[in-house]
């Protein structure tokens, strides 16, 4: 027996993993995700149209960029593959808000994550700043896709002080 049999693999496929995976256009549904113009988007509308005698059925996607909330559209033959982003959501506890707009978050492993800025969404921003000022324990949900991260939700844990 050799020591080389002790293999430890992390289940998180981050390093070297593709940021997207292919999926047939005809299989993508409303509520799913798709890459349009190199942006990760959530599909809000799908319509399929049949074309002429020798054409392919085409899928018309209307989607919202998950980070900028911009509306994007694309038309793809239903038999072709589209890129679908790997979208991940992580929850972190808020530790501090710096003067420059960066926030300090506590990860599950006990480390700090200091590379995220406050969200640009006014309602979310107000909720975070007010809750932090009142000394509440806040958990921030961070959406990750295609190398980008952004705070997408906030919730309070435990009873208020």
UniProtKB/TrEMBL annotation:
It comes from the Eukaryota. This is Uncharacterized protein. It comes from Avena sativa (Oat).
């Amino acid at each position: 027996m050799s020591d080389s049999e002790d293999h430890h693999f992390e289940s998180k496929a981050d390093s070297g993993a593709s940021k997207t995976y292919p999926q047939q256009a005809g299989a993508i549904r409303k509520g799913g995700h798709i890459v349009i113009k190199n942006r990760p988007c959530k599909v809000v509308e799908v319509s399929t149209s049949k074309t002429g005698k020798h054409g392919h059925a085409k899928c018309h996607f209307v989607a919202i960029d998950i980070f900028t909330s911009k509306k994007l559209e694309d038309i793809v033959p239903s038999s072709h593959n589209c890129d679908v982003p790997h979208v991940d959501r992580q929850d972190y506890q808020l530790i501090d808000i710096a003067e420059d707009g960066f926030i300090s978050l506590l990860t599950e492993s006990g480390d700090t994550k200091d590379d995220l800025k406050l969200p640009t969404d006014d309602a979310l921003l107000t909720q975070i700043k007010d809750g932090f000022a009142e000394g509440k324990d806040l958990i921030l949900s961070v959406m990750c896709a295609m190398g980008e991260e952004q705070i997408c939700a906030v919730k309070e844990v435990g009873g208020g002080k």
